[in-house]
């Protein structure tokens, strides 16, 4: 897949717009694995120096972007929130699992901008609210939906949005607002933080936007492309070096954004996405859907797309496959060990899988081989929900050698 625009023309067309994050900036650290199982964190790596005597990989610390919003959610919503503002959206309706990081992110970021969020969560209310579930409830309006109803997400979202709109309001879908706003219109004003006063005076009709589960729309790719453009600056990862870029995959949207950006910006980067929520066929379909939506919405042509079914992402099996959301024995201890040695918190459902893949790839790389880079997407608050569900795993964590 190659964009038939030059890379500068591509970035001008796609990235010249208003954003939610004031800057795409993020910290990049280096993780050195010395004598197993010892790990060392270097918070000020020098990117030009290739010391392959020791095995290491770089970590993009998107887990530090926002205290409550996952890094990958902040990226996915980076271009969406200005569109809401542009279209005078008053309410957002979206959905997710009980401990959805996506619904928490929508709730927090909408609340910061005076937009009301309606969050449909699958299943029953937990006895004790914690983690992302607690944040969704604090910042948004939560409704718990029976699993049978939730199974048909589109119908559920549509009927709930209609009920919020009532007789006078209107319901919008993402395709409506992307077509109503051109990139040139969006680039005329600076980054916005708060909605303008006229919209908060109560004299407007309600406009409800439906956002898909996990923000898996083509607009979510834009923030990820913006991140890649930032990382590929010469003083950071650069444009010349071959890189194996590792990420965990829930909906797979972040991985597709990384792959798309690498190809359209002409970077020698390969994306390795660890499959967590679906099989490879499901992820390949998602890749095709997002790219075809992206072409349509942003009026960009690609040549050579999906030649011989190769795609733009290497979808990788998880080391220990299981039903999505389940935790296996030893994983919580592995997260504890990483936290104690490096000060980095990974979680057993998402980021541990990507961490293990980065460890594996970087320990295999020859001296002249590609660099390995891990995108740490966050997931910190997810640990609270897991501790609530898997009390036996978390209860067994050792307190250290001197237990009283």
Description:
The modification N6-(pyridoxal phosphate)lysine is found at residue 73. It is found in: Mitochondrion. Keywords: Lyase, Mitochondrion, Pyridoxal phosphate, Transit peptide. It comes from Cajanus cajan. This is D-cysteine desulfhydrase. It is a single chain. This protein has 404 residues and is α/β, with parallel strands linked by helices. It folds into two domains: 7-64 and 218-393, Rossmann fold (3-Layer(aba) Sandwich); 71-183 and 205-215, Rossmann fold, CATH 3.40.50.1100. It is built from 16 helices and 14 strands. The protein has helices at residues 7-15, 71-76, 80-86, 101-111, 131-139, 147-150, 153-165, 174-180, 183-186, 220-231, 253-264, 280-298, 331-342, 351-364, 382-389, 391-395, and strands at 2-3, 28-33, 39-42, 55-60, 91-96, 116-122, 141-145, 170-173, 207-210, 243-249, 269-275, 302-303, 314-316, 371-375. The strands form three sheets. The protein has a seven-stranded mixed beta sheet, sandwiched between helices. A five-stranded parallel beta sheet has the order 7-6-5-9-8, with helices on both faces. Helix 11 (253-264) links the parallel strand 10 and strand 11. Helix 10 (220-231) crosses helix 11. It is globular, with a radius of gyration of 21 Å. The termini are far apart. Mean pLDDT is 88; it is low at 188-201.
């Amino acid at each position: 897949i190659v964009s038939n625009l030059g890379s500068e023309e591509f970035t001008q067309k796609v990235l010249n717009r208003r954003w939610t994050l004031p800057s795409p900036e993020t910290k990049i650290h280096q993780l050195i694995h010395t004598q197993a199982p010892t790990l060392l964190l270097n918070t000020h790596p020098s990117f030009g120096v290739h010391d392959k005597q020791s095995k290491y990989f770089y970590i993009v610390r998107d887990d530090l972007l926002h205290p409550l919003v996952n890094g990958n959610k902040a990226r996915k919503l980076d271009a969406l929130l200005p569109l809401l503002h542009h279209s005078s959206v008053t309410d957002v309706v979206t959905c997710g699992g009980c401990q959805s990081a996506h619904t928490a992110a929508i709730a927090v970021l909408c609340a910061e901008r005076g937009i009301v969020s309606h969050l449909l969560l699958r299943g029953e209310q937990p006895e004790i609210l914690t983690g992302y579930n607690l944040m969704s409830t604090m910042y948004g309006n939560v409704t718990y939906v029976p699993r049978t109803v939730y199974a048909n997400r589109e119908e559920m979202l549509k009927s709930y949005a209609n009920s919020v709109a009532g007789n006078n309001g209107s319901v919008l879908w993402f395709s409506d607002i992307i077509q109503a706003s051109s990139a040139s219109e969006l680039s005329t004003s600076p980054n916005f933080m708060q909605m303008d006063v006229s919209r908060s005076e109560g004299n407007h009709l309600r406009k409800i936007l439906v956002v898909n589960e996990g923000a898996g729309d083509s607009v979510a790719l834009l923030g990820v492309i913006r991140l890649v453009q930032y990382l590929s600056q010469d003083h950071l990862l650069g444009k010349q070096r071959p890189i194996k870029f590792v990420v965990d995959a829930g909906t797979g949207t972040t991985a597709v954004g990384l792959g798309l950006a690498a190809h359209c910006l002409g970077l020698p980067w390969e994306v390795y996405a660890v499959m967590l929520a679906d099989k490879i066929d499901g992820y390949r379909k998602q890749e095709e859907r997002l790219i075809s939506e992206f072409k349509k919405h942003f009026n960009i042509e690609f040549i050579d797309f999906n030649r011989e079914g190769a795609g733009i992402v290497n979808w990788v099996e998880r080391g220990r496959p299981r039903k999505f959301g389940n935790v296996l024995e030893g994983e919580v201890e592995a997260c504890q060990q990483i936290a104690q040695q490096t000060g980095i918190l990974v979680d057993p459902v998402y980021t541990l899988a990507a961490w293990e893949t980065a460890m594996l790839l970087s320990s295999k790389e020859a001296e002249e081989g590609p660099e390995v880079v891990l995108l740490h997407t966050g997931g910190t608050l997810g640990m609270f929900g897991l501790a609530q569900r898997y009390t036996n795993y978390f209860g067994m964590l050792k307190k250290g050698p001197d237990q009283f």
